Amino acid sequence: MNDPDDRTISSIGPVWRELWGRVWHLTRPDRFLHILDDRLLKPEPDIPDNERWGTGLGPSHYPYVRSISGVSLFDFRDFNPDSYQEEYTQSNWYSFVPFPKHWAGAVWIEFDPEDVKGNFISGSQLVADWKSSASYCRKIMPHIEAAHIGLLPLDLARRFIFIRQRDDGDFYSWENQIFDRTAYEALQSEWKEDYDIARKSI
User: Kindly report the CA angle at 12 between 7 and 16, in degrees rounded to 5?
Assistant: First the structure.
């Protein structure tokens, strides 16, 4: 595929035109404030295990990326949603895009693999490593989950996208160098109202 397909854009929204073909980290809008403060993405952020993905069965079953001290990334390069879903019928990648519904929004942080190549593991390489280490009890999203091993400096990010449930598919985008934290925090404050409602409905 040379372009994102219209059917996926119709399902996910216009933000898919931005996400497709690139590498991203997904985080909740309130957690993004901590990332901004630390200027780092951490393999072990200060987030309770019951709020992290794939922790229900305990440490021996934690996601593969976490077990190798990595920061999980989405690798949407050369990604065909239709053929992917046909091959990986149990995949729930679409529940994260454009944001998990119970979050009521999300921040996507873009990284260029060339900028982080020393510690970057592509989606295809990651699933190959997962297989070679026989880590089958650990969760992975085959081929579209990539990883950065160790601390990932926020200064290496290219841009940020903030998408909120209340905006009906519209989103906000900032290049890293001209990010407006004041504007973000005003938008994040509004998002928090929606998030509190979404949490109560779980």
Answer: 90
